[in-house]
TrEMBL record:
Entry superkingdom: Bacteria
Keyword Transmembrane: yes
SUPFAM superfamilies for this protein: Porins
Protein name listed in UniProt: TonB-dependent receptor
Protein family membership: Belongs to the TonB-dependent receptor family.
Residues of the TonB-dependent receptor plug domain: 71-184
Length: 989
C-alpha cells in the first residue's frame, strides 16, 4: 500500500503541476474562499429541506467536489426518506415514476414477448431515449450488464443500503463515459453503515392477485478501534404477478376494462372515397381462426368446430358473411367487430410477471488512517421471472387440412365430396393445448470490487482520490416451456387412416421418427403422447454469459485559490473490458460442426438442423464477442466572479478521451457555467456537451441467423439468402446536449421554497438501427455504398442480403423540466406538524425520429401515447408529518395525446391516405391521473409501521390498439395492475 500511495502522490503532483501551468494567469489574482456551507452541485432534495451540514458532497453530474462548487448539469436527488415514502417493493418502480424517466422497462412490459431477451429486466430510461442511452451506476461505478445490450438490472442492486439516488438529467459522458446520452442514474450506498435495520412489506391488488412480499435486513459494525468496518445486507422479494385468464375478451380476476382493441385498416388503394383508412375498433374479432378451429376459405368457409369436433356456423362480428375467398363481407381484413370472441388471445398475456429477487451484499473496509481506507465489496443477486406471452399458438388461416383426415366429422367429409374439394384452409387458436407457453428468465450476478479511497495533503492542499478494480459476471438463462415445434406440429395434424383402422401421421418420414397424430378439429382432449411429440419437455433455451472488468483511478481537489475562489481539478483514467457469449438450443440455433451434441435435443429428420428456427417462437442463436476501452478525463471548475454587486459565477469544463478496440478513438466534452445572481436565491445555469454511446455487444456481434427471403430489385422479384449478423464496423452514436436553467433556492422572501426550470435539447446522430432486407436494397439503389457492400443482387443462385445494424438514424428531443418544493412548520399558522410540497414535471416539445430509410419521413413521438413520451408527465407529492406520524398524498399524471402524430384525423372528405400520412377517424388517446396515499407511524424510536395505497381510484388503462390481435394496452405509460395495497414495518437501531 505504501507503493500505491506513493504512486498516487506522484500522479496528483503531475496533474496539479499541469493544471497550475494551464491556469497560471489566475494565480496572481485576489484569492477568496468559497462558501464553506455550500453543498457541491446539490439540487433541491426531494424533501425540500435545506442542507443540514456544511459539508462538501459530490453530486453525480460532475466529478468535482469542492467548496462553493455548484454544478451546471441539472440533477434531482432522492434521499432514503423519499424512497421510504414511496414504499415500493423495488426502487425501480419509484424511480420510473419521475417525469424525466420515460420508456423504462419493468415486469409489466415485454410480457407479450418470447424472444426479446429483455423480459423481467428493471432498466431505466431517461428522456425516452431508451435504456441503452441511460447510464446506471452503483456508487459511481459501472455494473455488469444483465443483457447483451449492456443495460443493468436495478433489481440486482443492494437496495436497503441506498441512501441517495442522483438522477442526472443531462449528458454525462464527459464525467462517466459511454451510454450517458440521456443522462445517468447513480445509486449511492451507505458505506459506513452502523447498526441494524430491517424492513418487511407485503400486499396485493384489489383483485386479490399480484400478492407480494419483501424482507430486507442490513447490519454494520466497526471493529479494531473503529478501523475495521463490516456491512452485510440481504433481501428477498417475491411478486406473484397477474396470470392470464386464457382465451376470450375477459380481463384477469375481474378486471373489466379489456376491450380487445385494434386498428381496422382499409387497403391504401381504397382511400380515394373520402373516408379514413384507419379506425380504432373495440371487441375486435380475428376472423382467420376460432377457438377450436375454423375453415377459412372455399365453399365451407365459416364452418367452426366445437366440443367433440361437432361443426357449427361461426358467428362473425359486423354481421359478416363469408365469401368463400377468405374474405368476410362487412369486415376489414383481418378483423370483424363483435361476434364470437371466445378465441381471442389478446387478454391471454400476463399483465405482470412473477418476479423473485434475491440479493446478498457485503462491504469490508480497513482505515489505514483517519483519511484513507481500503475496501472490498461483493454482491450476489439472482432475479427470476416467469410469465405467459400468449395462450395456445394461434394459426391464422395458414393450415391445410385434407378432406381424408380421419378426425373430420362425416358431414364435413361429405361436404368436401359434394363441393369437389380435397382440402381446405384452416385456422385455430389451439385452445386445446394443455398449457400456455411460459417463459422463465433467470439472471444471476456476481460482482466484486477492491478499492481504496481517501484524502492526501499535497502542496498545502487536500486531494481526494478513489481507485478500484471490479470483476462482474452475469449469467442469463431463458427457458421456454410448453411450446411447439412447427414441423412436428404440421406433421402431427396431417393424419391419415391406416390399413388396420388406426390413425397415423401421413408423412412416412415423420411417422418413422416418432410422430404421433394430433386432433385439432374441435375441442378434444390432447393425447399426452402427441403433446410430448410436438412440445417436447426440453423447449427453447438460451444461455448467456457476460463479464465486465474495470480498473479506474480518480482524483479531485482544489489546485489553488483563484481571484474568485478555489480552482478545482478532477482527473482520472479507466480501463474496461466487456465480453459475452450466447448459446441457443440445437432446435433453435441449428447445429454445425462446432456444435456439441446435446442429448436433450436429438436429431430429427423433420427439423432444419443447420439453420434452426424450428420453434413456434423463441429461436435463440449462438454468438460471442468482446471489446475493450481505455479512457482518460479531466474536469476543471474555474470561479470567474465573486462580487457583492454582481454575484458569483463559475465555469465548468471537462474532456474525456476514449479508445475502443472496435470503434477507435472517441472524445466527449462538456462546457457549463452557473451564475449566482445578486437577486436573493436566484441562480442561472447552462451546459453544452458532446456525448456518445458506443455500439454494444449485441450490435457488434449479433448471433447470426440465415433465412431465405425475396426482395424487389430493378422491377424484378428475386430470391436472396438473408443473413443477419453483427456489424463490427459500427461507429459510436454522437449526441449534442444543450440545457439552460433558472433556479430559485429558498430566498429570504420565501423561506422553505425552491423551484427550477430547465430547457433541454438533445440531438443524436449516427443512431444505430436495423433495417429490413428490402429497405437495405432500396438504400443501396439510392446510392449508399456502405449498405451496397452488404449484399450481392446480380448473381442468381448466390444472391444475398446481409442484415446488420447501421449508423443511419437520428433522434432529436427537446423540452423542459420543472421542479418545485416547499417546506414549512405549521406552528406559524397555529397548526401542528410540518408540511412539505414537492412537484416535478417534464414537458416534451418534440421527440423526432428519423430512420434514414428511403421513402420515410421523420416521426414525432411527443404526445403519442402509444409510446413512452407524453407531452406532459407530472409527479406531485404533499406530506404532513410530526415526530410520530406522517401522511403523504401523491399525484401521477400524464397528458392526453394521440395514437400517432403522423395520422391525419378526419371523418369525411379525407385526403387519400399515404404510407407516411395515413388518415384515421379518431386520433385521440386519453392520458391518466393516478392518486397514491400512504402513511408512516413511529411506534418507538426504532420501530415504525407504514402503509401505501397506489392508484387509489383504480384508474383503468386506456386501450392501445395494434394492427394485430396482440396485447392491446401500453404498460410503459399506464398502470395496468390497478389499485394496490401494501403495509409493512421498519426497524432500525
Amino acid at each position: 500500500m505504501r507503493i500505491s500511495l506513493k504512486l498516487q502522490r506522484t500522479l496528483i503532483q503531475s496533474a496539479v503541476a499541469g493544471a497550475c501551468t494551464l491556469l497560471a494567469q489566475c494565480a496572481h489574482a485576489q484569492q477568496a474562499g468559497g462558501d464553506p456551507g455550500a453543498v457541491a452541485g446539490a439540487e433541491t432534495p426531494a424533501s425540500g429541506a435545506a442542507p443540514e451540514a456544511p459539508t462538501v458532497v459530490r453530486i453525480s453530474g460532475s466529478r468535482i467536489a469542492a467548496r462553493g462548487f455548484t454544478q451546471p448539469t441539472p440533477t434531482t436527488s432522492l434521499t432514503s426518506a423519499d424512497l421510504e415514502k414511496a414504499a415500493k417493493p423495488n426502487l425501480f418502480n419509484t424511480l420510473a415514476e419521475l417525469p424525466a424517466l420515460q420508456g423504462s422497462t419493468g415486469r409489466t412490459t415485454s410480457t407479450n414477448s418470447t424472444s426479446s431477451g429483455i423480459q423481467g429486466l428493471s432498466s431505466l430510461s431517461l428522456r425516452g431515449l431508451g435504456t441503452i442511452r441511460t447510464l446506471t451506476l452503483l456508487d459511481g461505478q459501472r455494473v455488469v450488464g444483465a443483457n447483451v445490450t449492456g443495460v443493468t438490472d436495478v433489481s440486482q442492486f443492494p437496495q436497503l443500503l441506498v441512501k441517495r439516488v442522483d438522477v442526472v438529467t443531462g449528458g454525462a459522458s464527459a464525467s462517466y463515459g459511454s451510454d450517458a446520452i440521456g443522462g445517468a442514474v447513480n445509486f449511492i450506498t451507505d458505506k459506513k453503515f452502523k447498526g441494524f435495520k430491517f424492513n418487511a412489506e407485503g400486499g396485493q391488488t384489489r383483485y386479490h392477485d399480484d400478492e407480494h412480499g419483501t424482507l430486507q435486513a442490513a447490519w454494520g459494525r466497526a471493529f479494531a478501534g473503529d478501523r475495521l468496518h463490516v456491512t452485510v445486507s440481504g433481501e428477498i422479494m417475491k411478486e406473484n404477478g397477474i396470470d392470464s385468464p386464457g382465451f376470450g375478451e375477459v380481463g384477469p380476476n375481474g378486471r373489466t376494462w379489456f376491450k380487445n382493441s385494434a386498428y381496422q385498416i382499409r387497403p391504401l388503394g381504397q382511400t380515394n372515397d373520402g373516408l379514413p383508412q384507419y379506425r380504432v375498433i373495440h371487441h375486435a374479432q380475428q376472423y382467420q381462426y376460432s377457438k377450436y378451429g375454423l375453415i377459412t376459405n372455399g365453399p365451407l368457409q365459416g364452418t367452426a368446430f366445437g366440443p367433440g369436433g361437432v361443426p357449427y356456423q361461426f358467428q362473425y362480428g359486423s354481421n359478416g358473411v363469408p365469401t368463400g375467398t377468405g374474405a368476410v363481407t362487412g369486415c376489414v381484413n383481418p378483423f370483424c367487430v363483435g361476434g364470437d370472441l371466445s378465441g381471442s388471445v389478446g387478454a391471454g398475456t400476463n399483465l405482470a410477471m412473477d418476479l423473485k429477487r434475491q440479493v446478498a451484499y457485503t462491504r469490508v473496509s480497513w482505515d489505514l488512517d483517519a483519511d484513507n481506507e481500503i475496501y472490498f465489496t461483493a454482491n450476489y443477486a439472482q432475479v427470476k421471472s416467469h410469465f405467459s406471452p400468449n395462450p395456445g399458438a394461434a394459426k391464422n388461416a395458414n393450415l391445410t387440412i385434407r378432406c381424408d383426415n380421419p378426425y373430420l366429422p362425416a358431414s364435413i367429409v361429405a361436404a368436401c365430396a359434394a363441393n369437389n374439394i380435397t382440402s381446405f384452409q384452416y385456422g385455430t387458436a389451439n385452445a386445446i393445448f394443455p398449457a400456455n407457453i411460459n417463459v422463465h428468465p433467470t439472471r444471476t450476478q456476481r460482482r466484486f470490487v477492491i478499492g481504496a479511497d481517501g484524502r492526501l495533503p499535497l502542496f498545502g492542499k487536500e486531494w481526494s482520490y478513489d481507485a478500484y478494480v471490479t470483476r462482474g459476471e452475469n449469467t442469463t438463462t431463458i427457458d421456454v416451456h410448453d411450446i411447439t415445434l412447427n414441423a412436428r406440429y404440421n406433421a402431427a395434424i396431417d393424419a391419415v387412416r391406416t390399413a388396420d383402422g388406426g390413425i397415423a401421421c401421413r408423412n412416412p418420414v415423420a411417422a418413422a421418427s416418432g410422430c404421433v397424430p394430433l386432433n385439432i378439429i374441435g375441442d378434444n382432449p390432447v393425447d399426452p403422447a402427441a403433446w410430448a411429440y410436438i412440445a417436447p419437455p426440453n423447449g427453447p433455451r438460451q444461455l448467456t454469459r457476460q463479464s465486465q472488468d474495470v480498473a479506474s483511478f480518480n482524483v479531485n481537489g482544489e489546485a489553488f485559490e483563484g481571484w474568485a475562489g478555489p480552482v478545482a481539478l478532477a482527473f482520472g483514467a479507466e480501463y474496461r473490458r466487456e465480453k459475452y457469449s450466447v448459446r441457443g438450443d440445437a432446435y433453435g440455433a441449428g447445429v454445425d460442426a462446432n456444435s456439441p451434441n446435446d442429448a436433450r435435443y436429438p436429431a430429427d429428420p423433420l427439423l432444419n438442423g443447420p439453420v434452426g428456427n424450428n420453434w413456434y417462437a423463441g429461436n435463440y442463436h449462438n454468438g460471442d464477442g468482446s471489446y475493450n476501452v481505455r479512457e482518460a478525463y479531466v474536469e476543471l471548475n474555474i470561479p470567474v466572479l465573486k462580487s457583492a454587486t454582481w454575484g458569483e459565477a463559475n465555469l465548468n469544463v471537462a474532456d474525456r478521451q476514449m479508445k475502443y478496440s472496435t470503434a477507435g478513438n472517441v472524445n466527449t466534452w462538456k462546457v457549463g457555467a452557473t451564475w449566482k445572481t445578486p437577486v436573493d436565491g436566484l441562480r442561472l445555469r447552462a451546459v453544452t456537451s458532446k456525448d456518445v454511446r458506443a455500439p454494444n455487444l449485441s450490435e457488434l456481434y449479433a448471433a447470426p441467423v440465415v433465412l431465405n427471403n425475396v426482395v424487389q430489385h430493378r422491377g424484378d422479384t428475386i430470391t436472396v439468402q438473408q443473413r443477419t449478423v453483427g456489424n463490427t464496423a459500427l461507429r459510436p452514436e454522437v449526441a449534442r446536449n444543450h440545457s439552460f436553467g433558472i433556479v430559485l433556492s429558498q430566498p429570504a422572501w420565501a423561506p422553505g421554497f425552491s423551484a427550477s426550470i430547465d430547457y433541454f435539447d438533445i440531438k443524436v446522430t449516427d443512431v444505430i438501427s436495423s433495417l429490413t432486407a428490402q429497405q437495405e436494397v432500396d438504400l443501396c439503389m439510392a446510392g449508399n455504398q456502405e449498405i451496397c457492400a452488404a449484399m450481392v443482387l446480380d448473381s442468381p443462385g448466390s444472391n444475398y442480403v446481409t442484415l446488420q445494424n447501421f449508423n443511419l438514424a437520428s433522434l432529436h428531443t427537446k423540452g423542459f423540466d420543472i421542479e418545485t418544493a416547499f417546506r414549512a412548520n405549521l406552528d406559524k399558522v397555529n397548526l401542528p406538524g410540518r408540511f412539505t410540497f414537492r412537484a416535478l414535471a417534464t414537458r416534451n416539445l418534440h421527440f423526432i425520429t428519423n430512420s434514414g430509410v428511403v421513402g420515410t419521413i421523420p416521426s414525432e413521438g411527443a404526445g403519442a401515447n402509444l409510446g413512452g413520451t407524453p407531452k406532459w408527465k407530472l409527479l406531485a407529492q404533499q406530506t404532513w408529518e410530526n415526530d410520530k406520524l406522517s401522511l403523504t398524498l401523491s399525484e401521477r399524471w400524464f397528458s392526453d395525446g394521440v395514437y400517432s402524430n403522423e395520422f391525419i384525423e378526419c371523418q369525411t372528405g379525407c385526403p387519400v391516405s399515404t404510407i407516411t400520412r395515413p388518415t384515421i377517424y379518431d386520433n385521440s388517446m386519453k392520458g391518466a391521473t393516478y392518486f397514491d396515499f400512504g402513511g408512516n407511524y413511529n411506534v418507538t424510536k426504532a420501530l415504525a409501521v407504514y402503509f401505501k395505497i397506489d392508484n387509489v381510484t383504480d384508474r383503468d388503462p386506456e386501450p392501445a390498439p395494434q394492427a394485430n390481435a396482440s396485447f392491446a394496452i401500453n404498460p410503459t405509460l399506464y398502470d395496468v395492475v390497478g389499485r394496490t395495497y401494501r403495509a409493512g414495518l421498519r426497524y432500525s437501531f
